[in-house]
Amino acid sequence: MKKERGLLIVLSGPSGVGKGTVCGALRKQDTDILYSVSATTRSPREGEIDGVNYFFKTRDDFEEMIKNDQLLEWAEYVGNFYGTPVDYVEKTLSEGKDIILEIEVQGALKVREKFAEGVFIFLMPPSLAELRNRIVNRGTETEDLINNRMTVAKDEIEMMDKYDYVVENDEVHLAVERIKAIVISEHCRKDRLIEKYQQLVEAE
Amino acid sequence: MKKERGLLIVLSGPSGVGKGTVCGALRKQDTDILYSVSATTRSPREGEIDGVNYFFKTRDDFEEMIKNDQLLEWAEYVGNFYGTPVDYVEKTLSEGKDIILEIEVQGALKVREKFAEGVFIFLMPPSLAELRNRIVNRGTETEDLINNRMTVAKDEIEMMDKYDYVVENDEVHLAVERIKAIVISEHCRKDRLIEKYQQLVEAE
């Protein structure tokens, strides 16, 4: 029987919505989902580990990866590069395992061009006021940068139309449950399974 | 904010696959899903209660309901009529509540014509051999009727293409978990939510 290919799950949403927190909470649960590690030129935040949270790269190294076509997508965002190394993603999917990418909105839209069959999840704040709170509370941004991020966020929310699912991040554990349900559900989609079951009928 | 309409979930699949068992197990769980009750002219099986498992009707009464357009769908199946009274379904959906219909394949396809936005789930046996076992073990059918049901089942499995999801009923609790995941996931589909979130951005 032909092996079912893994799901590429793309978790995205405006900066500050809590992608990292939700993805971190999902990781702590017992699922079979693997996690892609992005490359970035931004500085590590406290507690972030190279090769675990991100591959932290110099600008020169990152540009070399772009040139050699080693990135599934890359984008410049508020002055830094972010990108997804392609090798690990392809290998995981072809082994029939699911992999989740946690990436910025620009990057997600580029992945969509190459992986139309991916599962694209847009993480939403309960409100724009709450989004501003979260960015302010992170405490790493100046007032100007916060306003800049809010403007970008509003543009990004308009892009949810390009996604398959919208998950509200009202509470982290609820957002995690919704994402887990989406993954189970996508594995049951008829389009992904019909080949398998036609074999079952023909085998009779 | 405009009230989100409930989901119409249609659980179907070949006779003997375990629709009733799975639906019964789902009912015992703490979900917000309501259950439609079908009308039928077939005789009650042991333990089945009128108005709970089915509305048991005479052939005359059933034909009266057809004539008065009180059925969302109806079908004749192995000599009996089955149908879904339309009132309760419409009322439930417009109140924003989810409702599940457990119906035969013919009926499900008719519901699809009227409710294209419904969530159509096809319950699959792990194999055709296992399906035969289940029909035999039910102990209510003659050998001829079993063979008849198996022929119908194979034709019905070909119809899974008309469904959104295929759920394998390998173990009842697993099938129930998959159905619950599909319901959560469908509530997160962008197409169902985009209106709500556009209001959020415009409200700013």
From TrEMBL, chains A, B:
The lineage of its organism: Bacteria, Bacillati, Bacillota, Bacilli, Bacillales. It is found in: Cytoplasm. ATP binds at G13, P14, S15, G16, V17, G18, K19, G20. Residues 6-184 form the Guanylate kinase-like domain. GO terms for molecular function: ATP binding; GMP kinase activity. Belongs to the guanylate kinase family. Its EC number is 2.7.4.8. The keyword ATP-binding applies. It catalyses: GMP + ATP = GDP + ADP. One of its GO terms (cellular component) is cytosol. Keywords: ATP-binding, Cytoplasm, Kinase, Nucleotide-binding, Transferase. This is Guanylate kinase. Essential for recycling GMP and indirectly, cGMP. The keyword Cell wall biogenesis/degradation does not apply. Its main location: cytoplasm.
